[in-house]
Amino acid sequence: MSVSVATEKRRAGVLAAGGHAVTASGLGKVYGTGATAVRALYEIDIAFEVGQFSAIMGPSGSGKSTLMHCLAGLDTATVGRVWLGDTELTHLDDTELTLLRRNRVGFIFQSFNLIPTLTARQNIELPMDLAGRRPDPDRLAELTTTLGVADRLDHRPAEMSGGQQQRVAIARALMADPDVVFADEPTGNLDSRTGAQVLDLLRRSVREFGQTVVMVTHDPVAASYADRVAMLSDGRLAGDLTDPTPDRIRAALDRLWECGQ
Amino acid sequence: MLRTRLTQMRAHAGRLVAAAVAIMIATTLVAAFMVAAGVLEKTAFNAVSVSHANADVILEEPYQGFSTEMVEQIRRQPEAAGADGRFVVHTVIRAGGRSDSPTVAPLPETPELRIELDEGRYPEARGEILVSHEIAERLDLDLGSSVELLDTSADVGLAGRSGGPGGQPADGLTVTGTFIHPGAAFDHNVPGMFGRAAEVELWSGHTTVRYERVIALASPGTSAEELRTALEPLADQVGTVVYTADEYARIMTARFTADSYILAAVLAALVGVALVVAGLVIANTFAVIVAQRTRELALLRCVGATRRQVRNGVLVEAGGLGVAASLAGIAAGIGLAQITIMVLRAVLDFPWFPERPEVSVLALLIPLVVGVTVTILAALAPARAATRVSPLAALRPPEPGGIGRGTSVRRLAAAAGVVVVGALLMVAGIGATARGQTELGLAIGVLGGALSFSGVVIGSVVLVTVIVAALSRPLRVAGVPGRMAALNALRHPRRTAATAVALLIGVTLVAMMSVGAASARATFAGELDARYPVDIAVGPVIDDTGRHRLPDEVLNVTEGVAGVGDLMPLRSSRALVRNAALEGDAALQPIEAEVHGVDVGRARDVMHAGIDDLEPGAAMVSRQITAMTGIDEGDLIQLQMGSQTIELRAVFAPVERHTILVTAADLAALDPDASIGMLWVKLADGSSAETVARTLRDQLSLLTTDMGIPVTTAGATRAEVSRVLDTMLMVVVGLLAVSVVIALIGIGNTLSLSVIERRRESATMRTLGLTRRQLRVMLAFEGVIVAAVAVFPGITLGLIYGWAGTLTAFGGVWDVALGVPWRWLAGIAGLAILAGLAASVLPGRRAARDDPITAVSAG
Description:
The complex is a heterodimer of chains A (261) and B (859).
Chain A: H1 5-16, E1 20-31, E2 38-49, E3 53-57, H2 64-71, E4 79-84, E5 87-88, H3 94-104, E6 105-108, H4 120-131, H5 137-147, H6 162-175, E7 180-184, H7 192-209, E8 213-217, H8 220-223, E9 228-233, E10 236-242, H9 246-260
Parallel strand pairs in A: 3-8, 3-9, 6-7, 7-8
Antiparallel strand pairs in A: 1-2, 1-4, 4-5, 9-10
Helix pairs in contact in A: 4-6, 5-6, 6-7
Chain B: H1 2-11, H2 13-49, E1 57-60, E2 66-67, H3 68-76, E3 80-86, E4 89-95, E5 98-100, E6 103-106, E7 119-120, E8 128-132, H4 133-138, E9 146-154, E10 173-179, E11 193-195, H5 197-204, E12 210-211, E13 213-218, H6 224-237, E14 242-244, H7 245-292, H8 294-302, H9 307-348, H10 361-387, H11 409-434, H12 438-458, H13 460-475, H14 479-491, H15 493-531, E15 536-538, H16 552-560, E16 564-579, E17 591-598, H17 600-606, E18 618-621, H18 623-629, E19 636-641, E20 644-652, E21 659-663, H19 664-670, E22 676-683, H20 689-701, E23 711-713, H21 715-757, H22 759-768, H23 772-810, H24 822-839, H25 841-849, H26 853-857
Parallel strand pairs in B: 6-11, 8-10, 17-21, 18-20
Antiparallel strand pairs in B: 1-13, 1-14, 2-12, 3-13, 4-5, 4-6, 4-9, 7-10, 8-11, 9-10, 15-22, 15-23, 16-17, 16-19, 16-22, 18-21, 19-20
């Protein structure tokens, strides 16, 4: 998976800024106002390093999805600041955020979210099409071969299995060589074997090609593929594991559970 | 189940709005149409009845007339409380430097038979007259104003009587009252003035008066029917029948509305079109609602609802919607009619409009029944589709909208077959008309048109696929939004087709009507030229000796009037007319006619239609003259002036009743001493016949001659006929616009529904980098694509149907000219495309409002 010169330059800038792909500082999020206000995140300070596979974990309602939405520019923080590389997201308007997502962020969803009217190839090229960039055929071939969907390019999503669809979605996320890929429960709708393949592919994209991936999950096994796991509980950071194993993650979760009690 | 349904209806009220509006507009049209038809008839009836005041029966005999004795006999009948005869005398009157040429009739002696006064009182003393409001206004007359009577001549319409030199011109008439004239459109027999019977008889110049009409009042306690029965033997003697006043008014109303009958039929057809379009929109709405609720319906089936219950549920929903929307539509329709009447009454000052529409039970019931029926019929197919939802669907994850694949070959073949058969029938219809069988031609043609259009509708899915495919290439330029729009339009070809068909019908009909009107106008222009070849006629004028003589100043004055383009003097004479074939005992009494000599070479300059048929030896005569003398076209007609007699070949022409046109040379042979009796005036381009005629009348009345100079104009009639054509076109296009509006609601509806369906998909695209603007642009393209799918075939079909229709309707009678209103068609296309854009605005805003998070959180 080759990397363009422009991307190299941008990444050099990022490294100069401290080597973080995504940074949040004092990030808080409140839904609603007054008596009905719900606080989803309390002043979170967190940074995700370039070229690392990170996971955000936590039980349902812990705020992990909200955190990801804020980091990816899909949702706006109530307080605090968020940077993508050295770009601060907090003051960008909707169109600026859209262009930023289009050019610098990749997404992988739990239910794949391929566009049903488009073929696999058209789906993969969609973000570049939207940006008016010409997709590089060599990169497409390399990606789809690695992901094992090269022979499915002219099929529509309805004609593919769940695993194949998610691999096409990964290709779509990686195609534009984004600064960071956000994956939201990418194995949630897959059986464990297919899920393992998908996680392995994500890890390979980090190991072999220096991609930065931030994954939200509640599954300890999925999280164990990451280099680092950030634990979230009731909207607060509640732990940070490096080189996790499923057992260590389970133990950490159990401790969280006990504290919660 | 009913309660569940109604709860759901409330919950999904938003989705039903479009269907409800469609039903409402359609029922509004139906209700307004029914009420308006009633108002029109009531108005005509009122207007027609006005000149007969309270008469119970009417006898009419325009040729022989009724004698004074007969009127006396009718009066003496015990069943009759009173009776009066009616005849008219043509006059020329002058007041304060203006003149007019109204007819005057004797004021009935029976008070109940007198026309209703607007102001003042009825004439009592010598020289007193009652004038119509219109004349009073034209000549600036008030009660007590004095009017000069310049010339009179009895209507020479009564066979066997000479018009004579006219009666005694009497100056110093006094206006004692005014009445409101119902307008010649309703009853052209209503005179412009009434005078005392004895004086009007004097003005007629006849010693014995004959009446064209007798109106009679029934004695107290006697019904109009009884009076009719009593008078029938008398009517038999002159070979006529007795009408009750109601019957007569109805006949006159029918005669008036006969012209509007076609209009009414066209309107009814258009209301039908609106209903069909509304039906398509409704069917579409319900189909989508059912599709959206697949899970909900499956859940109902899971918990034990039978297929029948599911189907009935949808139908109950449709029925409820139909009733609610129809009631709203009926209220709107009646309100619309009421407002229209109020506006018309205020603007037109026309007292025969009823004050409020009479709303019959039928006018309420029919739109309700029609509205509900259309709604339920339209919901039948979606309801059946709902029963096919399997309970298992509730357990499966929702399937993303699949790609609709083309269509079956069978459907395509059926559509093509129907189109071909329809087209053949249309050609056959044109053929039948060309052979003179217009009714047969119209019947076959309409059937063919309906068939071929049904074929187009059946095949519309194919049409959609083909046109969208053709459009997707240029749309590629517009980037992802354009490409996605084309793909989305093809996602449910059937739904896109159903939406487009609604607009297709509207566009086809608007295009058809405008092409038809353009062709009709081109055709009528020729026809009008032939029927009203002369703009303004000045004269004829007859002097004291009974000879035609137009004072020399008249020519100078006329030439000087602004707006007069060209003029031609005609020499004139009076002649006795006989059928040359009938002699001796068989000969009918000769009738007297005015003979004018036309300079054929000059005629082209002053006439709209050349009179090519007028050649030496030919006489152009009216059908009235031929009817009275028993002459057929081509027969020899004998004209006698003094001792001179000539025989000419009769040619039918739309000339005035007692006018005969011959060549100048033939007239010289008949009457070598004939002097100029009449002028034909052609208007300068752009001047109004009405204005020029008025100026002419006023200027001529200032001449120091005591002869009245009649100025008659067909130019005004011409203008009126084309105004009527234009108005009809406006009304028709206006009504069709309603179906286009309904179709637009349908497009907006389809787009909104697909926006709802694609919420997650749109959000994904937003996450991946589609800006709000691009999302709106994508939907705008979708709207334009649907509109384009309707517009291009619609205009093409409209052209074909418009031409075929014109050929079929008029081909048998006239030389049809086919017109293409290019500007109209371009306008229609532009508007429809714009409308497609407009229809995407609301759904676009709605889609853009959604946060991209929807995609991520929907998992």
